[in-house]
Amino acid sequence: MTLAAVMRTIDAPMAVEEIELNPVGPGQVRVRLTAAGVCHSDLSLANGTLRQPLPAVLGHEGAGTVVETGEGVEGLAPGDHVVLNWAPPCRACWFCEHGEPYLCQHAEDARAVPFATAGGGPVYAGLGTGAFAAETVLGAHACIPVPDDIPLAEAALLGCAVLTGVGAVTNAAKVRPGQTVAVIGLGGVGLAAIQGARIAGAAEIIAVDPAVAKEGLARSLGATQFLAPHAGLAKEIRSLTGGLGADHAIECVGRGETIRSAWSATRRGGTTTVVGLGSAQDPVTFNALEVAYFARTIAGCMYGSTDPAVDVPLLLEHYRAGRLDLAALVTDEVGLDGVGEAFSRMRSGQGARTLIRF
Ligand code: APR
Ligand code: ZN
């Protein structure tokens, strides 16, 4: 039996329940969670903006220790520390073979298969991960080894916010030294993007969020300017960038309005990288003149365009060298019964990451 926060219906509180994990199958491992971050995508799954078979154990930003390995698992053994990957690539599909493992056609396979039972019925793992549980069972290829000297609770953040935010800047936008970057939305993902921009050598990093209490943290992680959004935001960003607009905007909210304003804040020829995962009912509009005339680029970005197996070790190098601050992204810690509390804070734009500690 394993304790887990189980989501039974959309928009209802999750109770901590006992679940029975499936036996560890071939190619799978059982992991005892040390910590799991609460991400906006969990909130989007909980309120129905994103879909997931139910009942489900959400949580996809986790780290823990391998406790059992299934038949045929190589390179992982009980006792190993791992970070969980919520979109594990199959390494064989068209996307994987063309250097885009973050778009793997099989990355979502595990989401459709139950990983546990409760009260005689199946329970699914949120994003195939199920990290809001003391233990989870998932594919060995979804586990990235982490050396023992890395604090495992902080490493959990690598699994989503940091891979996504840093990757958006370095892999997708490919920010160059000296460029100007606007980061819209300062949750765990946006604050990681700010760090990514600093690591990439950006000259100006303009942080945007209505929660003005985030200014201090944003600046301590690398932001050179902080703005609250308003109708004239794009104009203000242009005036802060020599009248041009930013070379890059990184959108980390996931709303039509913020995607549009990120785009308007970029210079002629600039790029907008959309990280935020919004609603299918929320359109973004462009007029027929401006697209070609401004020669701007807008690109979506999944999982920071990363390959976690490659990028987690790189991020750990940044961490060891003191360039990447993981602890600063954790603004609250709760137990497994604190998911609702974390969601409330997220809805009101308070704090960066809440970490569930097991
Ligand atoms: N302009 C700028 N920032 C905004 C705006 C706005 N109009 N509205 C909200 N925000 C801010 C919130 O105040 C909050 O600080 O966006 C931030 C979002 O942070 P979180 O809710 O913590 O979200 P996070 O987990 O960082 O994810 C961001 O990336 O992966 C996706 O699904 C995820 O769409 C989500 C996004
Ligand atoms: Zn996430």
From TrEMBL:
SUPFAM superfamilies: GroES-like, NAD(P)-binding Rossmann-fold domains
Gene3D superfamilies linked: Medium-chain alcohol dehydrogenases, catalytic domain, NAD(P)-binding Rossmann-like Domain
Pfam families assigned to the protein according to its UniProt record, in alphabetical order: ADH_N (PF08240), ADH_zinc_N (PF00107)
Cofactor(s) listed: Zn(2+)
Domain Enoyl reductase (ER): 8-356
SMART domains (UniProt xref): PKS_ER
Membrane spanning residue stretches: none
Superkingdom field: Bacteria
Annotated keywords: Metal-binding, NAD, Oxidoreductase, Zinc
Similarity comment: Belongs to the zinc-containing alcohol dehydrogenase family.
Protein name per the record: Zn-dependent alcohol dehydrogenase
Organism field: Dactylosporangium darangshiense
